[in-house]
Amino acid sequence: MKDATPQPVLLADYQPYPFVVNEVALAFRLSPSATRVLSRILLAPNPERPGRHDLRLDGGGGLKLIRAAVNGRMLDVTPDAEGVTVAAADLPEGDFAFEAEVEINPAANTTLEGLYMSGGMYCTQCEAQGFRHITFYPDRPDVMAPFRVHVESDMPVLLSNGNPSGSGKGWAEWTDPWKKPAYLFALVAGDLVAVRDRFTTKSGRAVDLAIWVRKGDEDRCAYAMDSLKRSMKWDEDVYGREYDLDVFNIVAVDDFNMGAMENKGLNIFNSKLVLASPETATDGDFERIESVIAHEYFHNWTGNRITCRDWFQLCLKEGLTVFRDQSFTSDMRSAPVKRIDDVLTLRARQFREDMGPLAHPVRPESYIEINNFYTATVYEKGAEVIGMLKRLVGDEGYRKALDLYFDRHDGDAATIEDWLKVFEDATGRDLAQFKRWYTDAGTPRVHVSEAWSDGTYTLTFHQKTPPTPGQDKKPPRVIPIAVGLLNPNGDEVVPTTVLELTEPSQSFRFDGLASRPVPSILRGFSAPVVLERATDQAERAFLLAHDTDPFNKWEAGRALSKDVLTGMIAEGREPSRRLIEALGAVLRDESLDPAFRALCLRLPGEEDLAQALADAGRVPDPAAIHAGREALARAIGTGLSGDLSATYAALESRAPFSPDAAQAGGRALRLACLAFLNRVDGGDRAKALFDSANNMTESAGALGALIDAERGGAAVAAFHARWKDVRLVIDKWFTLQLVHGNPAGAAATARRLADHPDFDWKNPNRFRALMGALAANHAGFHDASGDAYRFYADWLIRLDPVNPQTTARMTTAFETWTRYDADRQALIRDELQRIAAAQGLSRNTGEMVGRMLAAKPA
Ligand code: PHE
Ligand code: ZN
């Protein structure tokens, strides 16, 4: 495990692989603790790397080499810890075949990368560098080849990439005609059943679709299947992209480090992103399933047909594919609601990352462990950057550029330079300055001031990006700022216009106005920046009431809530009447989509408030934040009790359940009302809802509210008894008990739940359901005793040798440590140092805690 001093990999060191791989044939003889993998790889010298070269193949510690040969001649080679080298002198000139037989132990593989077992089935995870734990291979994305796979096993269902090309009793063969990098390889063998459907592409190719699950789970696949068909159609309609194999298989597995994986023709999913029924899944789960099914499907073109040259280019596939899945969801549901949700996630995860010790560019330049770079910055900011690009070149320019991208780079392992070049070639726009969005870390701060005289209104912007680790100076970026102007009656006098900020400071004039306008700036959140503008509560309330841009309408209310809350928390102010009245007006406005109203009513979370306070140069006090937010919620519950109870009652639905956006929006608004009413009715409504709910959205919502009202006891027990056999629901049972209720008890609850027989800690979903939920309880996690920190670090130390990837990701609970007071900083630093000193710490976790410890406390 432990490398004494792991060396960083640098983008600047990139060199093409000295060989090209023309074909790969693999044969698997599956057995839980002794699987044999036979490989035959046809290689040829790469003209891009003239001269003779050693053949270096990657291969991790778990591989036992049985034999290796070149052109049938046995080799006498001994692998080292990271691979095997065949000296140039032992290689013929020109083409040759490398063959190997290795033995691996999937049953002992708890890391969930490479070939492993989950719930009695074999499955694989190869991104980013898992294939090297299956056999010796040039495990890098720029080595692409067609694969043929032969599988022998007594399992009834044997799957791999591409099309089926033969099968018999105890074996199956698969052929993938499309060349691909090894990280897209997949194999599944298990006792599975298929839910089947069919899709005919626009050029008439019939595709057999199957979702493979364990017996008993078939009735929870319908939504995933429907989402898949809609995704396939959408990619044809909107991007002109058709599917390219005869089959498309999805497999649901219980043990998975991430959400899902886009392996060619054989997507593997965390079961929580496939299985859903109204009784077991919330509206949020349904929406996530729809978007992740789309995301993985869209990778077929953005990721698979065109892949990444190296892992520094990860955003090439991920940023673009997130952008595509976000657009898909906007088209399927409400575009403004989707935009608000995405910005909430961006700020909660990416802004947080960008402000702390783990900040890195969308395209990093160095890494120790690539698995630590599947981040909010690469994914979410990567998608924002594409949204800006689209805004700058227009819809038509974007479509032309994308057509050119698919045309020019199909079959390539491409770079961000290639990506930007297609935009330059298709639109004639120079993107040299725009490229800084990829190379420079940090969230720009845009300060706005305004002037008014004689019918002319001037907006002046200053941009500045704070330093991030390894990057002190930040030159100005191109920042598209969508602006609209309203007159004092609330009518729009200047419709949305995109201002392009390119200088450190810049002014824009609007002439011929009859009266001083109210500006609506950064409409649609047109750039991932922090906008700084001195304004008052009256103007925020005005925009909440009148802005024609739905994003900024919501944003005005959000900013107003934040102002009020930070005033209550830091200065002991009273809850604001103005805010309560403004929220009441939104609540009553039936012309607004219920989902949108629900978003307006949701108060900023405690973590969000801590970020806002830290940003304003204050030291956040977690207990005070919790108390302030509770006080405001109670004041709203009291101040609006009539409207809230009327809306709550009116939204009771008698229609048969549907997960569609309209019904989900109604439930979201109803639960938003309940959150306030629950603070004043002692939990009576929550109790009634818990007893009558026929869907998980309301059951889980009611259970959380009951725990908040300190009336959880019987309901918590009943919920467990009812769902004890449904893992995904028991995950929720763990989480709800940690994110609700009195935060002072969170660490104790976590300790108690960790002793529960259902706490299967090696399962990442379950581990996150408990530990991730504890970290998400801001006041509970940051309790002054440091008990939660200690407990959390103990478990990370325990998980690390079993599953370094999940451990490393979960260390990010500590990434904000420098924003707290000296006592908490000392407590967290001790825990980080304790993790860093753990025996045999993985490279994954070692890199993360090392970067966090390098942070200078504020
Ligand atoms: N490539 C996957 C996705 O975003 C994520 C993933 C990365 C899954 C690494 C597993 C391992 O769609
Ligand atoms: Zn992805």
Query: Tell me about the biggest sheet?
Result: 8 strands, mixed
The helix-and-strand class reads alpha+beta
Number of helices: 26
Strands of the biggest beta sheet: in what spatial order? 6-5-8-3-2-11-14-13
Q: What is the β-strand count? A: 30
What overall geometry do the principal axes of the alpha carbons give? globular
Q: What ligand molecules are bound, each kind once?
A: phenylalanine, zinc ion
Can you give the helix content as a percent range?
40-55%
Intertermini distance: 34 Å
Mean pLDDT: 98
Rg computed from alpha carbons, rounded to a whole number of angstroms: 28 Å
Question: Spans with pLDDT under 50 lasting ≥5 residues?
Answer: none
How much of the residues is beta strand, in percent? 15-25%
What's the short version?
The protein is α+β, with helices and mostly antiparallel strands and 858 residues long. It contains 26 helices and 30 strands. The structure holds phenylalanine and zinc ion.
